[in-house]
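F.,

This is the one I mentioned.
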């Protein structure tokens, strides 16, 4: 459950199995919701003209059941055995080309699992406004993992005007704090933020709402992340140390560039002076300190030549050629 599957209807990865939640209460305000949509979105009006999904599973009474999605690509399962396998098949409605899809499954109105979202993995799918069995509003549960460099998130529900609040769950998942859409939500770096939202409202007559949930990682304006000021202080201290290192490296590079520029100006100016005032016209004689540079180059060449010659003398004889431990003449010598 709470998984995302990509594939091509009737062609690739279109048959798979998911497991029903363990804590599912049948015939209540909960529901197992399966959603399939075309990918990318411009392939049609959601999945209406392109895709259908079929689910086979075992009910609470032990009998086999099968459901087919509605015109919106949605299946709602209200009676299912705990932790049973749900066999899912995604089919094409039209046969005139490939139909890539994205499939989602979640446990509505109960946090048995959480769909993972992030800046590079937005949730875009039709979600039923109300559950068919009980007419209860649909609550969907998500999670996102904060990187170590951020201590807050910002959630945007694009194209979903009815979604006005985000409920962030506490660590024990028994309480929640309500935030507005686009409001900065504090969290702990390196840990998951669990949250939920309700699509639609009680007065809505729509069957579904297209939920486009986008997540952005940010910082809470220098405030310590929720859960302890000590760790927040450590994080700030680490950031200051990194900034000091970066400033030191930048200062060294600037100094090195300045020295190289001054050296270049000195060499160009000295060469011009020797060429015009001292009437030295031969290259490289008019370059300042040319004799010193020439002697240095010759000395370096001699040094490497000597080193190369010493290395050649270190090679051992191969296949009996040259001197041998037993002495005597090489039989191949003439």
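My design for it:
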């Amino acid at each position: 459950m709470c998984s995302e599957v990509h594939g091509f209807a009737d062609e690739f990865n279109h048959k798979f199995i998911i497991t029903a939640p363990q804590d599912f209460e049948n015939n209540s305000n909960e529901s197992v919701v399966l959603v399939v949509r075309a990918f990318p979105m411009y392939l049609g009006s959601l999945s209406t003209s392109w895709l259908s999904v079929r689910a086979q599973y075992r009910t609470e009474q032990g009998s086999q059941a099968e459901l087919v999605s509605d015109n919106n690509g949605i299946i709602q399962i209200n009676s299912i055995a705990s932790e049973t396998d749900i066999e899912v098949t995604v089919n094409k409605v039209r046969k005139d080309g490939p139909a890539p899809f994205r499939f989602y499954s979640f446990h509505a109105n109960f946090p048995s699992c959480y769909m993972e979202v992030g800046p590079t993995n937005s949730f875009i799918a039709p979600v039923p406004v109300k559950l068919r069995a009980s007419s209860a509003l649909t609550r969907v549960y998500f999670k996102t993992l904060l990187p170590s460099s951020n201590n807050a998130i910002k959630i945007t529900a694009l194209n979903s005007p009815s979604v006005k609040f985000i409920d962030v769950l506490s660590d024990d998942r028994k309480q929640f704090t309500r935030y507005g859409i686009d409001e900065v939500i504090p969290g702990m770096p390196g840990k998951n933020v669990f949250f939920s939202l309700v699509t639609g409202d009680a007065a809505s007559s729509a069957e579904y709402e297209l939920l486009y949930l986008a997540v952005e990682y940010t910082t809470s304006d220098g405030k310590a992340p929720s859960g302890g000021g000590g760790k927040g202080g450590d994080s700030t201290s680490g950031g200051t140390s990194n900034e000091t290192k970066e400033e030191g490296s930048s200062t060294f590079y600037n100094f090195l560039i300045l020295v190289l520029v001054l050296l270049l100006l000195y060499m160009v100016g000295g060469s011009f002076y020797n060429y015009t005032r001292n009437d030295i016209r031969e290259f490289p004689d008019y370059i300042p300190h040319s004799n010193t540079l020439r002697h240095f180059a010759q000395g370096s060449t001699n040094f490497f030549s000597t080193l190369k010659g010493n290395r050649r003398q270190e090679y051992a004889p191969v296949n009996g050629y040259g001197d041998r431990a037993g002495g005597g003449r090489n039989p191949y010598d003439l």
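The first helix runs from residue 229 to 276.

Talk soon.
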